[in-house]
Amino acid sequence: MTDRSVEALVKREYQAGFVTDIESETLPPGLDESVVRFISAKKHEPEWLTEWRLKAYRGWLKMPHPHWAHVHFAPIDYQTISYYSAPRSQGEGPRSLDEVDPELLRTYEKLGIPLHEQEILAGVVKDPAPGESRAAEAPLQSPRVAVDAVFDSVSIATTFKKQLAEAGVIFCSISEAVRDHPELVRKYLGSVVPVADNFYAALNSAVFSDGSFVYVPEGVRCPMELSTYFRINAQNTGQFERTLIIADRGAYVSYLEGCTAPMRDENQLHAAVVELVALEDAQIKYSTVQNWYPGDADGRGGIYNFVTKRGACLGDRSKISWTQVETGSAITWKYPSVILRGNDSVGEFYSVALTNNHQQADTGTKMIHLGRNTRSTIISKGISAGRSNNTYRGLVRTSPAAAGARNYTQCDSLLIGGQCGAHTFPYIENRCPTATVEHEASTSKVSDEQLFLCQQRGIDAEKAVSMIVNGFCKDVFRELPMEFAVEAGKLLEVSLEGAVG
Amino acid sequence: MNLLEIKGLRAKVGGELILRGVDLTVAAGEVHAIMGPNGSGKSTLAAVLAGRPGYEVEDGEILFLGRDLTDLAPEQRAHLGLFLAFQYPVEIPGVSNMEFLKAAIDNLHAARGEPQLSTVEFMKRVRELAGRLQLSPEFLKRGVNEGFSGGEKKRNEILQLLLLEPRLAVLDETDSGLDIDALQVVAEGVNGFRSGDNGILLITHYQRLLDHIVPDVVHVLSAGRIARSGDKSLALELEEKGYGWLAQ
Amino acid sequence: MKTVALPDVAEVVGDPPQERPWLDAGHVRERAGNHLLTVPTKELWKYTPIKPFLDELARLSAGSPAALDGIDQPGVRAVPLDTLDGDDAMRVRRAVSERLDGARHVLADLALLRAGGGWFVQVSATAGPPLEIRIPQGGVAPLFLVLEPGAELTLVERMDAEGFLAQVALVELGPGARLHHYRAALARDVGHYSLLQVHLAQDARYRLNQNCVAGNRRRAEVHVLMDGPGADADLAGAYLVEPGQHLDQQFVVEHRAGHTTSRQKFHGIGAGKGRSVFNGRIHIHPDSPASDAQLSNRNLALHPDVEMDTKPELEIYTDDVRCAHGATVGQLALESLFYLTSRGVPEPAARRLLSHGFVRECMAGPLAEASAVRFMEAL
Question: Is A124 helix (H, G, I), strand (E, B) or coil?
């Protein structure tokens, strides 16, 4: 590809970059114990949880700032960040839909996430004109999707709660769960990601403000897709959400998260923790379409997305599957992982990470095989363009007890242009002689021949690049719930818009 | 004298019942062809006879020279004189054909309490066979089937057949992927093996192999059972009408 | 992270440093001292503790010079390091100061500071008989080998001394030069650190076959830098872990010019309670178009208590490349086992044969036979 076309390729517009003008209650920047206590008090939390947060905070103070070999950014001053910001109209936590500030509803509608129960979640890609309804475009037979909408530090609404409750499924903000289901929260919070797991998990444990909670009881197949939509709006604010999903014996749930933020010149921190627990024969499918603001073409601004996601296959024959499409953020640092404790349990990780301009992504997974005959599959597709760097980092570990464990990993990189980087760092630690671990990686580029062939057959170059990229990613898109697969494809197209002159 | 007697054989692969009661007898000096559509169980039958792991005999008997094979390890079956020519011969990089063939023949002799072949005699025989099968002597130094063409792999199977001199040869789709010249070389090899003491079980989808290796009996396997048996003319009938009419 | 108190640089190499014409000891000492503060706690020493190596280095006495055979032939000039001066000394001095990655190879710097003996060898034609080097016991005998443009050499290196040995070899291949390099480290119960760094100028070719048995602790670092276009490197080898032994191999191949090719193929067997660490890194620098790199690492775990770790790495900064790597840890393929048993080979023999084939595939050259015999003893 010529330099000029590469140049054109990196030009793209971030479509979710608007700011909602709303009055917020925002803590002044800074972090100390009083901030932790303030957040806990704001949520009327029981004392054990306040103490849990404080313990995490004190641990965090002693932890060194992380240093990553292939990620470069100026040190973050944690005293310049505000740790709590909520729309004033929200008052004391989530409300029923008709009580939510119409300005907030309009924000979500603009993002293509209408919070009306009769409509499906349209996605995180298109930016329709204000007031334009997506409902008309939605196929009638589309399944319904329940949404928990998190705006800055708080959950503003959760849809379809009643219908889900009829099936026995609990889907609410984590703040509500602390109040209404304290036994479940206390049992599982921090059980998969301990408070001292890493620097950002410790910070999150201290100051998390909201997030989603799901409990699917024994034998229940959750009747609809669940999703959480995260929106950062306020300036100088960090978002620290906490998600906890528990699938009891034989239960099944499919969950999706989406994320966007306004375009701002400074970097904003998003440090979430997601914990999944699957008991015997349970299955959790967790999909992410991450489109945080990536910064501008010169690398100014954008979200620092430092996230800890981990699932525990506690029960025999349980299964946890992570699928992620990562196109946003200035820096992405996350490794959705599975601890395969139950015998015959299964972990999967399917990932597409696209970086452009000055974006940096360091993402991958850890598969920890503890139980017998545990299996894991890792399919990672990295696409690098512009001056970005895209790293796959993964760990596959088999313990001596993991007899018959199997892993298959495939990591492919696609480079677009000669100024980007694509890196692969797989760690394989095998302590089990009957385990089989296989890793393969390859690198390719969008070649002139491919482009020429497409063009000769009447396909314009931009479409051809998008086709090639989509083809490159299809093994992962196949794993997404159908309506999101379409969205993910479009998202890549937007990201590659103006590719070839 | 009967070489092979299969009685009411039922066998499973991956929990699925594939052979649903196969009866078959092959006497010394006979060539039997097993034909049948894809998925009828032909290759499963070959695998079960040779004791391939993962194939489970649920019921029935396989008597080879009067001895029940069911609980024997693959090498024990080989020592008794059962040979399987693989449909997809395996590549074993790093293990040379020479090492491989020598190990096979030495173990055969040891199991039978016969004297070992000296290296000189062994080399002489292998070179002679390689010449007959038009395999370059260089092939002995290469890894087992490593980088071989489809035709070379099949000729290597026949070389092993002639070297190990079994009593019964089971040829699993040996004709697949061969051009006409290679097919003739392979057929000549097999016909050279044919004798009044030996038996051959030819598994094939097409009748063209049977023009070169003429069978005494033709069986049609369908849905895990032998649906029909007849003489060579049955193969021609199948060629003409296909397998569809059998179901009627 | 557990922190173990490490000896400081003065404890390891003494104070003040001994200046020599071929070594800018002050500079190297400072570099080693700086890196000793940070490097050992990081990635490069994740699976192998560095402290025992430092302790061994500190105990080393000045060893006897390495034995070198095959230097009495036209086109080969060998000078003991102790008598090296003038331009030759300057050349070595600059190579160490400017071309050695002091962070990645911190032990090499320390070893050079403790060196006694060692050779500078210059080859200016196509050498006839191979150059054979035998590393002495209990010492550090560096080798600086230069192949002038178009020269060709076969180098055979035996690393079988008892006790502890540290080894640094810096090799420069001029344009069009060719080096066939065979190394074997077959002794057990040894401590061993080695760095082999090879620079390839335009169209130079390097072939390495390296077979290693794990020692009490053995760390083998190989760093190949393709500086000139058209350079070509082919690295292969086999390794074996026996009970109570530890082997850490670190391979780095850097493509720093266009149209460069590298191939790496390493097979290892874990035959006892011990540990093998394999790190294979391919680094494609910017502006190295049409680079072509491949790495394959396969591990066969034959013992219930062996740990086999592998990390193939790719770091790529240009789009016009062909890169692939693969790594596996597992057992013998059942299909192969069945093929052999169906031909009448009993299972234990079939396993031996397959294991042997697995490592034999990666052995070549004059030391292959001895290596194969040594490996079979353990199987």
Answer: coil
CB-based contact, A416 to chain C, within 8 Å: yes
Q: What is the DSSP letter of A242?
A: E
Burial status of residue B241 (CB atoms within 10 A of its CB: 0-12, 13-18, 19 or more) = exposed
How far is it between the farthest Cα atoms of chain B?
58
Tokens at C175, concatenated: 């344009």
For residue C309, the one-letter residue type is: D
Across chain C, which has 379 residues, the per-10-residue mean pLDDT values are 70 79 92 86 86 87 73 90 92 94 92 88 89 77 94 91 86 97 91 95 97 93 97 97 95 96 96 94 92 95 92 91 92 90 91 92 94 90
Measured between CB atoms, does C335 come within 8 Å of chain B? yes
**What number is the ipTM of this complex?**
0.85
Give the single-character DSSP code of A76: P
A abuts C (3+ Cβ pairs < 8 Å): yes
- Picking from C158, C154, C196, the residue whose alpha carbon sits closest to that of residue C177 is C154
Judge contact between B202 and B175, C-beta under 8 A: no
Name the token pair of A232.
């950062």
Residues 6+ positions from A64 with CB-CB distance below 8 Å: A199
The answer to whether A342 and A315 have CB atoms below 8 angstroms apart is yes
Residue B154 three-state SS? helix
Q: Which residues, 6+ apart, have CB-to-CB distance to A207 below 8 Å? A: A31, A35, A36, A39, A53, A57, A83, A84, A238, A240
Burial of B176 (0-12, 13-18, 19+ CB in 10 A): middle
Pairing of strands A242-247, A154-158: unpaired
Chain A residues touching C287 at Cβ < 8 A: 418
Residues 6+ apart with CB under 8 A from C305: A400, A433, C272, C273
Chains touching B by CB (3 or more pairs below 8 Å): C
